[in-house]
Amino acid sequence: MKAAFFSGDRKVEIRDIPKPEPGPEEVLIEMKASGLCGTDIKVGAVSPYPKPRAQVTEEERNIVCGHEPCGVVAELGSCARNVKVGNRVIVHHYLGCGKCKYCLTGWTHMCARGAKIMGFNAPGGHEDFMLSPDKACVPLPDEMSFEEGACCACGTGTAYQALQRLAPSGMDTLAVFGQGPVGASVTMLAKAMGARVIAVDTVPERLELGKRLGADQIVNASEIDPVQVIKELTKGEMADATLECTGVQEARVNTLKSTKIWGRACFVGGGGTATFEMSPMIIYKQITIYGSWTFSTHVLAEAAKFIVDHKLPLKDLITHTFPLAKVGEAYKLFETGKTGKIVIVWD
Predict the structure, then answer these.
(1) Main-chain phi, psi angles of 299, to 5 degrees
(2) How many CB atoms lie within 10 A of CB 55?
(3) What span, in angstroms and rounded, lies between the C-alpha atoms of 320 and 335?
(4) How far apart are alpha carbons 7 and 12 in whole angstroms?
(5) Alpha-carbon distance 268 to 176, whole Å?
(6) Does residue 272 have a pLDDT over 90?
(7) Who's near 114: CB < 8 A, 6+ residues apart?
(8) Given pLDDT bands bounded at 50, 70 and 90, which one contains residue 106?
(9) CA distances (Å), 161 to each of 25, 135, 243, in order?
(10) Which residues are within 8 A (CB) of 336 and not within 5 positions of it... i.e. 6 or more apart?
């Protein structure tokens, strides 16, 4: 079977590898869709993709990449009980001890003994068949395509969990900084939750994506000060809630500047650093700050159900699909920062 590996120097290799066999509590997934994520290509993240080839370890070079898997259960291990052969599933892309309080409640990535992440230090989804713990398999609703399931497997699920922290409603104006796949998902979901959404980005293509997914206003931060625009749109009060999905210092600062007195701010974008003026931006405004990192298995299932129940246009988030044989081209396109979600698909 075929599988993809990051080899450094922004290259992806396709190799022939043996088809794996499930252990007692594992299942074999026949892959149908596997999404690309900003974490895959981000400098300073755990991915070997952007590293110079000479700095990529042998172990990193031999990990199947991709951490947004979705497919069909093909085989069961002898003790696997959570799914059946033929089930359509989204894979929660973490491996934990399975015994601590975090693993037992579905928050595997918070494992007290340290979790592994599929696609980075455990085999991922860019392969014809992949192994998964049976408890990491979340049902894919019949109404949802495999491509949409791959979106939920990381980016859109991350957006949903971040919004659970902020709890927006029809009373709120929400400013979303970044309209990549996560930020655009936030826009779509928050609009369905009743919020008025202001979408901020610097890329026209991504701003148009945010508009299609429900943004009430879009702001090009490369042309105008987004903080001033948000101030004008809120009659000087600033946004009730703000959500940052970029990992960029300037956007992180603007996220706090755009948050009203007693407001809420949530940070999702990974990597990098940020420097804040603590007193005027946080303390004197008495704002509440949340950090949010992906989701539990239960939240993943809830996110998929929310999308189906509200008939949200998640398919519109997906702008490109590629077969596994062209995964390298997919990553090159994704690096331009002008796309929505890109998904690797199997017939």
Answers:
(1) -70, -35
(2) 10
(3) 13
(4) 6
(5) 11
(6) no
(7) 96
(8) very high
(9) 27, 20, 12
(10) none
Q: What predicted TM-score, i.e. pTM, was given to this entire model? A: 0.96
**Residue-level pLDDT at 65:** 97
Give yes or no for residue 241 having a pLDDT over 80. Answer: yes
Please calculate the CA angle 10-15-19 and round it to the nearest 5 degrees: 130
**Distance between CA 199 and CA 112 in Å, rounded?**
36
Contacts by residues 51-60 (CB-CB < 8 Å, ≥ 24 positions apart)? 51/8, 51/9, 52/8, 52/9, 53/7, 53/8, 53/9, 53/11, 54/8, 55/8, 56/6, 56/7, 56/8, 59/121, 60/6
Q: Give the pLDDT score at 44.
A: 59
Contact 280, 253 (CB under 8 A): no
Q: Read off the pLDDT band of 45 (50, 70, 90).
A: low
Identify whether the C-beta of residue 208 lies closer than 8 Å to the C-beta of residue 179: no
**In the CATH scheme, what architecture does the domain 158-291 have?**
3-Layer(aba) Sandwich (3.40)
Q: What are phi and psi of 327, to 5 degrees?
A: -60, -35
Strand partners, 199: 176, 218
Separation between Cα atoms, residue 178 and residue 197, nearest integer Å? 12
- Domain at 2-154+295-345, CATH from 3.40.50.920, 3.90.1150.10, 3.40.20.10, 3.90.180.10: 3.90.180.10
**Average pLDDT value over all residues in the chain:** 96
> Using an 8 Å Cβ cutoff, are 292 and 243 in contact?
no
Number of H helices, E strands in the chain: 12, 17
> Among candidates 93, 71, 95, which has minimal Cα distance to 83?
71
Domain boundaries, given as residue ranges, for the chain? 2-154+295-345, 158-291
CB 94 within 8 A of CB 153: no
Q: Which two tokens stand for residue 102?
A: 């975090």
- In the predicted model, is pLDDT for residue 43 greater than 80? no
Residue 177 neighbours by CB under 8 Å, 6+ apart: 183, 200, 201, 221, 226, 242, 243, 244, 245, 246, 251, 252, 254, 255
| pLDDT-derived band at 271, boundaries 50, 70, 90 | confident
What type of residue is 109?
H
